[in-house]
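yo, Pyruvate-binding protein is done. seq:
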Amino acid sequence: MLRKYAFGLALSCAAILPAHAQLVLLAQGRLTGSAAGAGRDLSGLGYTLENGLPANVLGGIGSGLSYAGGNTFLAVPDRGPNATAYNPAVDDTTSFISRFHTLSMTLTASAGGALPFTLTPQLTKTTLLYSPTALTYGSGAGLGTRSDGSPLGSGAPMVNGAGKYYFSGRSDNFGAGTSGNPADGRFDPEAIRVSNDGKSVFISDEYGPYVRQFDRATGALIKTFPLPGKLYATTLSPQGDVEISGNTSGRVANKGMEGLAITPDGKTLVGILQAPLAQDAAISASNKMVRIVTIDIATGTTHEYGYKLTTGSGVSEIVAVNDHQFLVDERDGKGLGDGSNAKVKQLFLIDLKNATDITGLTGAAAASKAVAKGAAPFLDLVAELTGRGVDKAAIPAKIEGVSFGQDVVYNGQTLHTLYIANDNDFVPGTAGANQFYVFGVSDAALAGYVAQSVSAVPEPRSWALLIAGIGLIGGALRRRRPRAIA
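structure:
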């Protein structure tokens, strides 16, 4: 269950957060390295990728973010450092192994600070994702060279062994059939959620699109959920532009299952595509619709719903408020990392209750049955940050990770915490560090909120002791039961 913190702070901070605030920025933090060093994760991989970067390079971890109980969150980077140009024949992708990171996200009182809380993100573990059965990898034949001029070679990670076939970001790691072939070795993780028992994780991707379940402790594949065939591309290529030009149906290249939610009862996954399917793309520019796919975890049964974009060019995340309401992260690609000013980074509240299943519909007919959404954003991140004096050019372009966390009690008011993270494309020199923003949300702003109850999984003892020590600073810990849906 979620816990809530009670902090007593100086009056100078009380002025920042009014007694009856509905939505307010509580803290901001950044992560630039780990115990392995600056710009390195804890995978322990000591070799070099095709583009010359280390296989344990840290970055992109805001592609997906999920609460995992206590101070613990899980973060997932996407397919790897393909923003570093070296070989356009494979869209500059590498055999970077798919992985997720375990983070300690400690909130402490910040007496007299610019924000009422201090957020300290720390990387405690990196888990590599693999299949116990063989996967299909590209040979690299005819696809040019590595950054050092040697032949590109196989897309199979060099640490593969019997019973451990790692997923990777190389775009040529696919076999026969559609993009939904479960034996394909290519994987582009974009969202992550934790099971209620805390023992497994669900990760969605853009290549299939896929939704896969992995063992949280080992990273072993448990299951790949079959998705509706209309989501898959039929003509495949290591180059996204070529793949787009060869398909009239299915997901478009690099814009598959970008977001994933799990309902608080842990029974249903709710995925959302970044962009319209090829067969839905004929809708006018002012009537763009992306698909939401719900998956019953026990049976695999799916349903589809439509979501109309407002001003963003696509969707990056979806997170559950309760069993029928969700926040959708709609954005463009402007801001830090794009060399431009940030424009659209907005969360919209939607409701799937009584929504129309569009499984049998396409194009304008499907869009006409889109789900209800708020006319105004629930949260406009650009407006919130510029209101605090942040330059638009300093706001990350790719706001992609969204998760609720522990409740906090501050200034006599209980607030739900909403964590937001960015994908920096593994290029911190251009896109900045991995950033985390924490907002406090009142019941008045989010009536009906129900917290997911995630069973705790013990972390390494040294970190557990540190977290326990820090977490008690400034106030007492109290349990909070999730409220029933209003």
